[in-house]
PTS glucose transporter subunit IIABC (Companilactobacillus halodurans), 544 residues
Amino acid sequence: MSKNKGGSKTFAALQNVGKTFMLPIALLPIAGLFLGVGASFTGASFIKMYHLQAILGPGTFLNSLLTIFNDCGSVIFNNLGLLFAVSVALGLAKSEKGVAALSALVGYFMMYATMTSAITNFGELERLKKIGGLLTNMLGFTNTMDTGVFGGIFIGLICVWLHNKYYKIKFPDAISFFGGTHFSPIAGALAGIVGGFLMAWLWPYIAMGISGLGYLIGKAGYVGTFFYAYVYRALIPFGLHHVFYLPFWQTAVGGTAHIAGKTVVGAQNIVFAQLAAGQHISWQAARYFAFEFPVMICGFPAAALAMYHCAKKNKRKDVKGLLLSSSLTSILTGITEPLEFTILFASPFLFWGIHCVLFAFSAVFVSLLKVGVGFTFSGGLLDMILYGILPGQARTNWMALIPIMIFYFALYYFVFRFAIQKFNLKTPGREDDDEEATLHTKQEYVDDKKSDNAVSTGSNNSDDAISATIVEGLGGKTNISTLEACATRLRVSVKDPSSVKKNLLKSTGAVGTVIHGTGVQVIYGTKVSTIGPEVEDYLGIEDE
């Protein structure tokens, strides 16, 4: 009994989380396209290798235009943590959502200000500079640490918890100005300071451990190759993958070679030195890159197709746009964050237990087939053409990628489809919102049409009447804890689920009502975009 009650509370608390994560995720495909195209065609190695200085060199019109695309895409990906912090606060705030978002914004900046200042003022800067890839510049801060999406979600959750707890707080008259919603940003600022000190102390130790792991993996042969790819991908949500891969790309951990009379260290440096010298590309160096192409070009689109086919038929139209645009971005540019974060937030098991494992096996396969394709930016089709196909089969063995890519399309599709259905994973389009099938009378059809017409009239009186009926159907104002409209439904948390009247809600045009514990979903389809604000306004009118 207590277990079911706990599960119900969890459902009620988290039913909005998926939607809030989708806010920044929906932005990533277009940002990824800008970033991928801009970075691929303005890379110094690409321009030099194909003697395109006159067309794409610095100062040319195309270079300037593509650089703008690159910068516009980069600003989104460089600040994903901030976007997720605000989105978490928006989604989980019980009321005064704008204030909650501001609190998370303040908390995020304060966390970075505290962390950056602590690094400098407590004498850690020189020591941390020795950990390659740890320190970076972002948000206007110099020599700070990128905590990735994890940092944003971390501070967002703390700030929204404080907001929900204290946004109605009352102080004595002398300081009453600082009470209520005015207190939320103050609480967010204090949370950011505490979180910044915590990150300044904890994050370097995590980074040092990851860096040390990288050195061990570099000496472990094919087993090391597997773990390199797994850890590299598993760290994406935490923003620590730079710390891990940088020694392989830029130091002797990734190999040493003598090219054109010079000693070159680091896998990426070796690959591009060999490309510039017209030599055969070392697969030992390229193995740290080539494994991405099968997954980015074929694996992710197949996973997206599996998620689409596993979505409920009435929801496929809703998820098609996100999955299709994200797949195209992955194929062309190798930007996979839209799909990876969708997978992660739908099911951590699907991300770390399945996707990262398949990703790691790709590294083993490209090593066994001695593929010599590298990249400057990411493992998309653009980089495969530039650094695999154009240099020629004799130098890169790029054709060996084709059977791996075909195999990975089938592998990702069937494994994802099996896992989603077997474990009932809540990937996009699989939310619990089906009601049991019933036969409907002609009078019900007429009543539905009447309610549809009432909703579309735009009359304030009819809008208020429908809103009042919806509130009554949810058990009355006092029974409603939170109410929010998403793409197709009202998501409501109620105090007493037994007070919800499905038939009354049906009379307002609802095509279904799902009750799971204290979480209620009232499904209206696309009409919810007008119904939701009207109900929220009606509840506000009652408050007055």
